[in-house]
Amino acid sequence: MKKYTSSKSDQQTTETPTWDSYPHGPEYIRASQIARGARNSRPLIHISLATWWRWTKSGLAPQPTRLSRGTTVWRKSEVLAFIQAKHGK
Q: Tag placement on the chain: N or C end, fewer CB within 10 Å?
């Protein structure tokens, strides 16, 4: 993990905070963690990735947050609420 100093007068080094170190922040998950794909044998919902994206684009599933060009995530709480409402789990 990369280290930094907070100021020149303070020579104490600390670890760079990670997202996991924020206990009350929202938890995000990717499509490959939600739906069944080549890399995920234990999805949250047993549908294909194509179906998940189709539901997202049609407004049926929660809307994602785009972090960068190749990284799209969903709030885990919204996905779990959607699954519970849709399947009664």
A: N
